[in-house]
Amino acid sequence: xxxxxxSYIIILCAVLLAAGGYFALTKDAPxxxxxxxxxxxxxxxxxxxxxxxxxDSSEVDVELVDHKISNVIDSxxxxxxxxxxxxxxxxxxxxxxxxxxxxxxxxNNVFFATNYLPRILWDSLNFTSRWDYYSAKEDxxxxxxxxxxxxxxxxxxxxxxxxxxPTNRSWDIxxxxxxxxxxxxxxxxxxxxxxxxxxxxxxxxHFYYHCEPLLFTNYYLITENGFDxxxxxxxxxxxKKVYWDxxxxxxxxxxxxxxxSEDSVHFKKSPLNFMLENRSFxxxxxxxxVLVGLYLFVQARRKQRIIPIILPPKNSSLxxxxxxxxxxxxxxxxxxxxxxxxxxxxLHVRTxxxxxxxxxxxxxxxxxxxxxxATPQEVVSEIITFDERIRNRARIDHDELSRLNQxxxxxxxxxxxxxxxx
Length: 422
Prior knowledge:
Layout: H1 2-26, H2 49-57, E1 61-65, H3 69-72, E2 81-85, H4 94-105, E3 109-113, H5 119-125, H6 133-136, E4 137-142, E5 144-149, E6 156-159, E7 161-162, E8 165-166, E9 169-174, E10 184-188, E11 195-202, E12 205-210, H7 218-221, H8 224-234, E13 241-245, H9 271-277, H10 279-298, H11 317-328, H12 335-353, H13 362-373, H14 377-392, H15 398-421
Parallel strand pairs: 1-13, 2-3, 2-13, 3-12
Antiparallel strand pairs: 4-9, 5-6, 5-10, 7-8, 10-11, 11-12
Helix pairs in contact: 1-10, 12-14, 12-15, 13-14, 14-15
C-alpha cells in the first residue's frame, strides 16, 4: 500500500511540474500568427479556411487534388475549374503541365493565385517572350494598395497588418510592357502599370494568373470589401466542379534520385514535423510523452479490461441546419444577400444581353430586358424597383427578400425554358 501511495505522489508531482512548465512557456503565446502561412484548412489571418468554407457552402463541387494531377482530374471533363491558391512556389513537372494544357483546351479554366509560377509553365502559356521572363515580375513596397478589376468601377483597398498593426509589405505585380499581345489584363493595383491579374485564352478555356494570393486569405474575406473582390475574381470561373490542388504546394521526392542531386526534391512534411516546429505543440507533445510513460510505469500490473460504453451515433444534421439558419436569417439583416442577388442579376444582364443599364432610362431599360429575356415587363419592372429600394435603404426584411427571390426565380426560369426549347 505504501509503495502505491509513493508512486501516486511521484506521478502527481511530475504532472504538476510538467503542467506548470508548459503553462509558463505558453501563457504569453499570441492567439493569432500573422505570418503568411497560406494553409488551406487553418483559421489564422493569412490562411484560406474562409475561402474554402464559402465554396463548400455554395453549390460548387470541390474535390481536393492530393496526388498527381493526372491521377485525380478526369481526362474528359469539361466546364470545370482547376485551382492552385497559395504557396510561394508551384511545384509541377512538364508532364503535369501538358495535362493542364489539355485540360484547359477542352473548355475548362485553370486559376493560379501564387507568388511564383515555374518557368516551364510561364513559357508554355507565352505570358512574355523568353527573354523577358525575369523583367516582367516586379514588386512595390507599401502598407496599403487599391485593387481594381476590369469592367468593375469599384475600388478595393487592402492594408497589410502584422501583430504590431499596419506595416509595409512587398506586393507582387507584373509590368504590362513585357506581356505579349494574347495576354488579357483582368486586374491591377493602383495604376495601369501595376498588373496583378491576367488571363490567357487557351483552346476553349482560359488560364488565369493572380500574383497575390494574400488577397484571398481569411483576414480580408471576412470583410465586405474583401468578399466582393474575391467574388469579382471568382465570378469569371465556371464554379461547378472545382479541383483544388493541395499536392503541388510541397516538394516530393523523385524515386531513384539521389537526395543531393539537382533533380531531387524533399519529402513532404509529416504532421510530427509540423507539431515540433510550433512551440506550443512541441511542449504539448513532450508533456503527452511524459504522462504516457508515467501511466505505463504505474499501470504495468495486470488489470481487468474495462467494458467500453458504446453510445449510439449522434445525428448532428439538425443542429447544423439550425446553425446555418441562425447565421443567415435570425440576424434579420438581409441587405448583403439582397445586394449580392441584384449584383448577380445585373452581371447576367450585362454579359448575356449586352445591356448597359447606365446608358438607358428606366422605361427603355425595362422594355429592353423584357424583350430579350422574354420575361413579363411587370416582373422586370418590379425587380428594378427592388434594386432602387435596396440602394436607398439600410435594412431589408425577410418578406422583401423572399419576394425578390421569387421575382428572380421567375426571371431565370423563363430564360432557362427558352434555352431548353432552342
